[in-house]
Amino acid sequence: MLTVGDKFPAFKLTAVKGGPDGLEGPGKSFVEITNESDAGKWKIVFFWPKDFTFICPTEIAAFGKLNGEFSDRDAVLYGASTDSEFVHLNWRVYNKDINDLPIPMLADTKRELSSALGILDKNEGVALRATFIVDPEGTIQWASVNGLNVGRNPQEVVRVLDALQTDELCPCNWNKGGDTLKPQELFQAA
């Protein structure tokens, strides 16, 4: 699996647009997204195993609700699974939890991106619940993976992004606005 310090792989995937444009229907709801889209921004790329499941919409909806917070931090959210853009669209239309999702849903149907990242479940052949924070230069700064049966906490992704963007030493449980560590002060106190 790719990890912190690795370059996020190049990709070109079809996605269902975020927001109301994503519900216009086949041909109108789709957009191509690449690793060069949203250049100069932080990117949060999160994967889920399958559409039309139980845990996935809870996570996707939770990320969607935080879209404004990510945007305020000059970051974009991309959600992805190995399902097709047509499956994503149908799921958005019929699932009230993600019907108004403001973020694009990427279709990694050939499993190229999930394979390059090393996040395919060995038994099921679907993406694990992986999350990557990628800096504006395309370098992975944080990676997290959960098994298929455990949802993640999108608020923690916001907290980690805040910490990364300080470019400071952030202690355990640090939150935005909290004190960062100053090594020179720690040594002087001793």
UniProtKB/TrEMBL annotation:
Q: What Enzyme Commission number(s) does the record list for this chain?
A: 1.11.1.26, 1.11.1.28
| Cellular localisation | Cytoplasm
Q: Thioredoxin domain location, by residue?
A: 2-166
* Xref: Pfam families: AhpC-TSA
Q: Which PANTHER family match?
A: ALKYL HYDROPEROXIDE REDUCTASE C (PTHR10681:SF121), THIOREDOXIN PEROXIDASE (PTHR10681)
Q: How does it assemble?
A: Homodimer; disulfide-linked, upon oxidation. 5 homodimers assemble to form a ring-like decamer.
- What is the protein named? Alkyl hydroperoxide reductase C
